[in-house]
Amino acid sequence: MYIEQTTIHAVVRSLEGRNAVVETEQGGCGRCHEKGGCGGQQLTQMFCNGKKTFQVDNTIGAAVGDRVTIAVAPGSVRRTANLAYVLPLIATIVGAALGASFGGDLSAIMGGAVALIISFLYVIFRSQGDTGNFSGRPHIISR
Hints:
Blueprint: E1 6-16, E2 19-24, H1 40-47, E3 53-57, E4 67-72, H2 76-102, H3 105-127, E5 139-142
Antiparallel strand pairs: 1-2, 1-4, 2-3, 4-5
């Protein structure tokens, strides 16, 4: 079964080594109202009024000013959200439960806090380098 990758249009604003800083023409993937769309664009519009720029892999050698299409691998947004939000939440709950089993409220608080810190360190570690979002970084696929 073929799963279509999500694409979005952008303009290259600057180059940084093998990467390009792009400015998107719209927030998110633009599939908010389609079946399977997450609706996250409406939520982010409340908090973000400025231009949206992102660093992506410049796999085709695009130049500054080029209008390009950016691809995001299927499922990578969900996996990244799980890594950044769900993992710390679950770690905190498990840490608090383990802490509570060893003592009272203070142990539960300490267990939750330690687990949260460890999960944040793991998220930061996983976010570094080329393996940041499990299935590949967003990249330019065409001009």
